[in-house]
Structure to design on (670 residues):
């Protein structure tokens, strides 16, 4: 891209009174240079079957063009109109709860032929309408697309076809899934049971994987239609979202973002997070990293909050901190959902940039400063490239398996991911996110693998080869336990990685009143509790970094490290305190030569880096706290971009609460 995008979602259809010109005037004053339209309003665009009305779309396009504002047009397919559900009730997804009812969004079966027919028609009509407008810069496919747990008869039939293509024979499927158990053995493809009643988690996990492929196919289908109309200079994106725990938390269970992104020209995402005293930047960082590594390139933040939930009303300065945190992570846009607070219905209290009175307010005034800085500094901050030496491997299959075989304390896969990622973040170690489909493990010095419960042997062999070639592996309990069919490996655990890690175990339990101790990590007697899960690890060639401080479990290792060929593998057999985990990671990072000057700073000071189009390093120093912070500037001499002042290495940066400094180094990289 040639500039940073700063924008909002805009719905002329929702406005309580005529104010289009006023809105464009206010946007222009805030240096908002892009709006996103149309993705939510199928019923307005096609009020009756075959009757199309794009008045609101064209009004917004024309007003934006007059104001010099670009537009991203969304296909309106994620919220179906009432007439379509009435004429074709079969388009409403059948889920394990039964037949869906009309009312909510994202309630359809994305495989339904009737739904596809009408969706394609409205997409084509919309594309024919908007392509005459030169200010349309790109298209968003659908909206936060998922499979919506569709599992009706037509989906079950497709699943059987999928299984036949995968296994060829029912005998092979029976063996892979262990269907002899409880007489689940299938005699013919015609008698494959409805998966929603299964007690076989291998079968259930395969169905979840199959459902994710439906999203891949659906988005690719939409992309193929849009490409028939799109100009060469227009992009195609999708606003992927993440596991939701009241805010964006981690890997999305219902979509494999890596495979779904193949049809896009640029990856996009929606990131929401707590604010006020709970603002840490962690969600911005991990979700941004997940999106950045889909195409291994810059990405778009298509939705984030301005005010959002009532408990997210930002403190002064936090909106600026949000925006530049996204840019520091490699984003090329910050776009708010949405321009104004809606006056009725489900999202009445999900507030936009403007409040319900539609007047300039504190968030809008702060947004004006962000827009001005984006416009002024765009050439120095757009297309920032990051070269990280630490990566984390995440897996949808492992997520599914640990949702099925749930850990105690309601601990899910993403809890283990965040335990590791958050520690690295607080230590100022920037981290890329890898997926099983990625082939570039060797580009990194350290590979962190959380709870890879289910993995094909080939993936485990690749991890082992990474260590043998000189890499540093950090992996955890529940790694290398079952194959790709969720069938436990009948060999020494962790399977394939046992030799690499230099350990073995065959017993595990839930820790109760179990602490850790370890001289190598400087842990005092009874340091912290072992949490959630504990494997009773026997070191074979590994050194013990910590053991269980317990009368009966004390003979077993809790944390080990092992030299294997040219590299090392560190194994965490239990979930520890953050302090203990950071001691382990420090040891690994120092051995890998990754420990650098940034690690002298600790949270709430967060340091991010990237190289701009001019080949210069840009350093971001953020203060995620309500207190004034004085922080040494560790990097090369440069210019602080917000204030335009010179900064020398070793200078003290004064960071106000929720404040930041951005320094462009004087010299070019290399």
């Amino acid at each position: 891209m040639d500039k940073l995008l700063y924008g909002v979602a805009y719905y002329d259809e929702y406005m309580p009174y005529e104010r289009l010109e006023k809105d464009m005037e206010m946007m222009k004053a805030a240096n908002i240079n892009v709006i996103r339209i149309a993705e939510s309003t199928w019923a307005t665009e096609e009020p009756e079957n075959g009757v199309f009305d794009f008045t609101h779309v064209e009004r917004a396009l024309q007003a934006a063009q007059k104001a010099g504002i670009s537009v991203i047009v969304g296909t309106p397919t994620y919220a179906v109109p009432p007439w379509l559900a009435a004429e074709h009730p079969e388009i409403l997804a059948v889920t394990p709860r039964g037949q869906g009812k009309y009312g909510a969004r994202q309630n359809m079966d994305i495989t339904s032929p009737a739904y596809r027919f009408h969706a394609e028609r409205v997409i084509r009509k919309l594309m024919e309408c908007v392509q005459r407008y030169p200010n349309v810069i790109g298209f968003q496919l659908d909206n936060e697309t998922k499979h919506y747990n569709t599992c009706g008869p037509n989906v079950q039939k497709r699943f059987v076809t999928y299984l036949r293509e995968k296994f060829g024979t029912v005998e092979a499927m029976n063996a892979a899934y262990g269907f002899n158990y409880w007489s689940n053995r299938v005699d013919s493809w015609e008698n494959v049971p409805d998966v929603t009643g299964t007690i076989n988690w291998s079968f259930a996990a395969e169905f979840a994987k199959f459902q994710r492929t439906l999203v891949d196919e659906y988005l690719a289908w939409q992309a193929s239609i849009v490409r028939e109309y799109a100009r060469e200079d227009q992009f195609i994106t999708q606003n992927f979202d993440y596991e939701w725990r009241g805010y964006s938390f981690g890997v999305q269970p219902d979509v494999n973002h890596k495979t779904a992104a193949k049809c896009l020209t640029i990856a996009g995402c929606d990131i929401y997070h707590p604010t006020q005293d709970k603002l840490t930047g962690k969600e911005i960082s991990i979700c941004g990293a997940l999106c950045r590594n889909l195409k291994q390139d810059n990405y778009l933040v298509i939705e984030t909050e301005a005010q959002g939930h009532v408990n997210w009303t930002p403190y002064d300065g936090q909106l600026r901190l949000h925006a530049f945190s996204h840019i520091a992570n490699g984003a090329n846009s910050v776009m708010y959902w949405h321009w104004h607070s809606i006056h009725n219905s489900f999202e009445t209290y999900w507030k936009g940039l403007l409040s319900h009175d539609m007047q300039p307010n504190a968030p809008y005034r702060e947004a004006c400063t962000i827009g001005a800085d984006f416009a002024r500094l765009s050439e120095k901050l757009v297309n920032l490239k990051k070269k990280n030496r630490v990566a984390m491997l995440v897996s949808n299959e492992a997520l599914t398996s640990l949702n099925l075989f749930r850990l105690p304390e309601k601990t899910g896969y993403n809890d283990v991911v965040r335990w590791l990622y958050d520690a690295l973040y607080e230590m100022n170690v920037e981290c890329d996110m890898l997926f099983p489909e990625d082939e570039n493990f060797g580009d990194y010095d350290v590979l962190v693998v959380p709870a890879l419960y289910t993995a094909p042997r080939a993936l485990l062999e690749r991890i082992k080869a990474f260590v043998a070639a000189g890499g540093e592996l950090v992996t955890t309990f529940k790694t290398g336990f079952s194959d790709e069919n969720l069938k436990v490996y009948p060999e020494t655990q962790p399977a394939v990685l046992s030799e690499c890690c230099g350990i073995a175990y065959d017993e595990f339990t839930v820790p109760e009143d179990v602490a850790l101790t370890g001289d190598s990590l400087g842990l005092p007697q009874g340091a912290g509790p072992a949490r959630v899960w504990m494997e009773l690890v026997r070191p074979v060639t590994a050194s013990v970094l910590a053991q269980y401080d317990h009368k009966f479990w004390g003979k077993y290792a809790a944390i080990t490290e092992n030299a294997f060929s040219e590299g090392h593998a560190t194994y965490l057999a239990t979930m520890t305190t953050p302090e203990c985990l950071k001691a382990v990671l420090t040891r690994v990072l120092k051995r890998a030569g990754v420990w650098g000057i940034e690690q002298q700073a600790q949270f709430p000071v967060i340091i991010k880096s990237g190289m701009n189009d001019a080949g210069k390093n840009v350093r971001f120093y953020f203060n995620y706290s309500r207190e004034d912070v004085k922080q040494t500037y560790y990097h090369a001499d440069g210019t602080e971009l917000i204030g335009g002042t010179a900064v020398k290495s070793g200078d003290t940066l004064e960071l106000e609460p929720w404040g930041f400094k951005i320094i462009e180094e004087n010299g070019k990289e290399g």
